[in-house]
Amino acid sequence: MITKEDQAIAQALRSLITKMTKRLRRQISNPSSLSVAEGSVLSILMNHKEVYPSELGAQLSISSQFMSQILNRLEGLGYISRRASPEDGRKTLVSLTKKGKGMIEESRQEREEWLADVISDRYNSREKKVIKEALELLTTVADL
Questions:
Q1: Total Cβ atoms within 10 A of residue 38
Q2: What residues does each domain of the chain span?
Q3: What is the pLDDT of residues 48-61, one digit of tens each?
Q4: How many CB atoms lie within 10 A of CB 74?
């Protein structure tokens, strides 16, 4: 049975995750000013070698027209490439370019360095241990 304490913890955790996500987004030097949707497309591509635009749209709940605009912009920036599917030449496969992968890796490194610096400055070794233990517990929720 869900208690009021469980609900309060869930609300606080959701709120914290939202705030942290926004804060981490502000930490990147993003010369091309990518939108959240564009960043999400690049993140998906980082985890998959090649993806059909329709699969990207389905994962992000984005219309095919909007997905086309996103892909056109990312291709113009040199972050993605497209090629005809070997199984069905009418379909297109999307993948990250070397430049796109490098930009994502650099962005992740910038955010992790900022966060590590904050942790180093603000928390003592006991507090860092508590954070690490909480992360271990919360990771099981993300894996459900």
A1: 19
A2: 32-142
A3: 989 999 999 999 99
A4: 24
**Structure tokens of 7?**
């609900």
CATH of 32-142, one of 3.40.1280.10, 1.25.40.10, 1.10.10.10, 2.60.40.10: 1.10.10.10
Query: Which residue is it, tokens 């990312």?
Result: 74
Name the amino acid, one letter, at 77: L
Segment 17-28, tens digit of pLDDT:
999 988 888 777
pTM of the model: 0.77
CA distance 68 to 75: 10
Query: Among all chains, which residue has been given the structure tokens 């869900």?
Result: 2
How far apart (Å, rounded) are the C-alpha atoms in residues 22 and 24? 6
CA distances for 38 relative to 44, 45, 49, 117, angstroms? 10, 11, 17, 27
Q: Please report where in the chains the tokens 């929720």 appear, as a residue.
A: 141
* Distance, CA of 108 to CA of 16 (rounded, Å): 19
Look at the alpha carbons of 15, 17, 18, 23 in this order and tell me if their dihedral is positive or negative. Answer: positive
